[in-house]
Amino acid sequence: MLTKEIVNFLKSKKLTISTMESCTGGYIISCITNEEGSSSVTEGGFVTYSNNQKIKLGVSESIIKQYGVYSEETAREMSRATFAHMASDVSIGITGTFSNVDNTNIDSIQGNVFYSIGILKEDKLIFISDKIQVPIMDRVLQKKYIGDIVFEKILEIIKFQYGKI
Is the pTM of this model over 0.85? Predict the structure, then answer.
């Protein structure tokens, strides 16, 4: 699995990773912590299912109001807020809607998930953000679908930014 390669790469470079996840409910950090030795590369992650919880952890309320909670901008803010709390080298923010529309947020579109991968390099934060169109299927399979895409992107980015093992 890609998470083993990610954890081994981070360990070899003495780097850390953390997450702030909404729709994935901690799936990304759970997969990472399933790998042996992961405690040396992560202190953990946040599951922020509500807008209020995101804001409490430092996601800009004005970003949520301007762009919506389900947006690349909010995913980036989630990643940035994770840096502030965890001081990790890599941070992930994920927000979106799976099969059902969230009636409490008007920007909810079925199957739209946004993620942002933040990298700390030479005291600068770099963010790579994107959208995933998630097919309608079992919720656990949707989390795996997102995870597979995000893990591939994490590995690509950390190898590019931090060099090969």
Answer: yes
